[in-house]
Amino acid sequence: MPDLAFQSLGTRDVRIVNELRLLNVIRQRQPISRIQISKLTGMNASTVTMIVKRLLAHEMISEGSTGHSTGGRRPTFLAINPDKMSVLGVDLGVWQTSYTVSDFNGRQVMWRMLPTAAESEDFLHQLCDDILKQLAETRFSQERVLSAVGVSVPELVDVQDGSMLLGLEQGWVKVRVGQIFEERLGVPTFVENDARAAALGEIWLG
Predict the structure, then answer these.
(1) Among 29, 44, 39, which residue's Cα sits nearest to residue 77?
(2) pTM
């Protein structure tokens, strides 16, 4: 049996994990102060301060009103910047396909449904055409930046290249789902089985 190579988390990985934890706490509890974040996450005050400084510099969060002082500096409350970036979510179904665009707070700003066609790659290109048209008509691109695409499919997925291995119908075998979306929309695309995608959504949103 071949040896399995395990990699420990590096400094960059730990930083990313901590940033995601902190962002999720802010999203769930906003507006929230740095002191409250430290208590909820268990991170020390200096770590929270450094992460908040990076997130503010990248405009992912913003500072708002101040709270009452308990003897020291008045706490400043933090909140997610909803207009920083947006994500397109696509639910590729057997009979119907829907897509939605959400802002950085997870608020839905666009939703649309259309029938799924049997001709796999032709349909995906038609779907991308429809998405681009809807984005243009709502002047979405002038107000927000589409940062990524997530696609859920009801079949086995090769997560390395974003291909769907088995088909909804005969013509849906080893379809280049991720590649087509990335080429047409110009942003990173992540393809996942719908059951796993639903589980991840439950973890993130509850």
Answers:
(1) 29
(2) 0.77
